[in-house]
Write a structure and sequence with these properties.
Blueprint: H1 2-81, H2 83-101
Length: 102
């Protein structure tokens, strides 16, 4: 009888350990799935944010290039209308730079 009780106790203990292991495994699997879902959502959000930033940067670069081209054209027209004034201005700038950088 004592052997039967001991055997039943061991079986109950084994069942309890097995059930606890299954519950722990299920919990770990659910936690892993939640982590994977979170990582996927964050990754998708980061991808969208980087794409948006890239488009904004591209537009900013295009705007700056257009502005530079417009100012360059304006400067060229000014120099063509007043070449002596442009040469005098270049001479003054050269003199000042040579004076302070030498």
């Amino acid at each position: 009888m004592a052997d039967q009780n001991a055997s039943d106790s061991v079986d109950d203990l084994a069942d309890g350990v097995s059930e606890a292991g299954r519950k722990a495994g299920d919990g770990a699997r659910r936690a892993g799935e939640r982590v994977a879902d979170t990582v996927e959502r964050v990754s998708e959000r980061a991808d969208r944010t980087l794409r948006r930033a890239g488009r904004r940067g591209e537009r900013a670069f295009d705007d700056a290039a257009d502005e530079f081209e417009a100012r360059s054209d304006s400067l060229e027209q000014t120099i063509r209308r007043n070449p002596l004034g442009a040469a005098a201005g270049a001479l003054v700038v050269g003199f000042v730079l040579g004076r302070f950088l030498s």
